Predict the structure.
Amino acid sequence: MSRRGHSKQILLFLIAVVLPSLVLVALTLRMIGQERELAEKRRAEETRRLASEIGHQLLVRLEKIKLQEVSALESRGIKLREWKYVNPEVVLVAPVEKNRLLLPWELNRNSEESRRLLSEAKFAAKIQQAEREELVKKDLVRATQLYLDSVHLAQHPVQVAYARLLLARALEKSGQSRKAQEHYGEILLLPSQVSDEHGIPLSLYAGGRLLEDEVAHQAILERIGTELETRFLLSPIEAYMLRDLAEILAKTGPEADIVEAAQKANGEILDHIGYLEQVMALRKDFPNLIPMANRGSEPENREPVWIPYGEETWLVSPAPPVTGSESWVVAVEAEAVFSSLAAEGRLSEAFPGEIRFLTGRTSEGESLGQSFPGLGATFIATDAAALAGNWNLQGYFYLVTLLLVLSVTLFGAYLLWRDVRRELGLAEMRSQFVSSVSHELKTPLTAIRMFAETLHMGRFQNPQRQSEYLDTIVSESERLTRLLNNVLDFSKIEQGNKAYRPKPASLAEIVQSAARTLHYPLAQQGFDLRIEVEDGMPPVQVDRDALEQAILNLLSNAMKYSGENREIGLCLRRQDGQALIQVTDRGVGIDPKEQTRIFEKFYRVPAPENQLVPGTGLGLALVTHIVKAHGGRLEVHSTPQKGSTFSIYLPLGSQS
């Protein structure tokens, strides 16, 4: 086959297979891209639907909390000691007055009552007189007496405690520390409702004085614990005073238990101070939050709005009055609300995976709706079903189709490449075969013609010389006949028409006949053929001419590839119940990598020294066919530069 024919084959293959495959691959990739875009759109729509549903559930929950808290506070009135929230998620419920947030401690009825009691005319005048003697005139004796008069004049526990607190201060200044500590100790045990005009329990002032004297550590620690347990909302001043007491106790406590308890209490107080700081920041920023919450439609049609606020995110929303006339603001801890919804199982009903809520100005996540500006959510599938849902069967089908098309295309390309390479190899072998046959035919024909013309011209009258020329003509004619027989037999084998006619024959006679046929060429080239034939070999069913031709081919190869060595062995013997015919030379040998290919048709070992040796590449292929047709096998054992041995194994008594 010509290279032009191969080019046509490749071009036809590209047009018929590769080009449609490329078109199909392009279409498949486009369809996969379109499916991916549709899947992304569906996923985005599903995410928006989930966000809307979860936002609705969250809004219902928050509005319910808002209604419960406002109703509860309006029903019982605003009293600090009863300022308890119904829902644990709530961090602040406060009334709004003139666009200003009123914090719970600012509405403390106890501070108003204490301010009224401490400003009564007779009591206030007596206290002012005593303080003038103590602080201005430095007359501690007179001041102490006046403070005692104030205690006797007092008609309410707040007045009594306040006068005794000032009395203890005067006693401590005058050196009567023990009496002062007794007064401080009794004041320390008073309830929180006994406070000054700022709502600060007088017991905390007493505790601070006792700590300076390094006494009553345990009692002060208990006082701190009582304040933290009984007071729902501490004012900032009270929280800072408790913090100072706890820090001093943690540093100066006489026992490890007191120090550890003080450190724990200080941690709780610091948490509360952090909460108070966020409350104070909310009050400061409240005027800016109100327009954001109230924007939009008319008040009667306005949607509720919950605004994220603070580092520890709160959701803040204005609340209209339920039964009264005051407006309110409700703040809840965002994470607590999310957790409560998750605990109730409502979020898992909407989405079985993990839901993460995002607050602040981040652009990530899906918006939960107009009621939650600045609040978003992301959805992370965690179960196998949700993850598998991200892949659709159509996408899998397209991928499998694409892989199948690519596999078929690549496999077809491989087959074409293999066939073309094989055809090129065969074409090259055939070309070498034609060249070799031409050379092989030309050489004996030239010799026959030359010696025949010499004899015809009668130049040599010597009978011995004439006999040699005639032997040469006969030898070259036999060589030519063998060559033609090889070509004809190979042609019959290729067409499947080669027939063998086995008859009982003596292998010894066949071996001797082959040796006689090559006697003259061997003698002419100086070869020493050593023949070993075992006696008593039984007749074997063989095609005599075909087997002799196989032996002649092996001997001819031995002559061609013996190199400088001129010894060839021909052996016939029994081995393992078989007849063994061996041809041995001590020539160039065969590389182990080539020993499996030398029996292929037209193949010749591509060694430089073999290029000068004439041959067609058909001899061993014919030998292999003949031996297999007789039920035997052909083996080779060769070592480079040491020679080769070809062995024909034939079954004895075979009826093949």
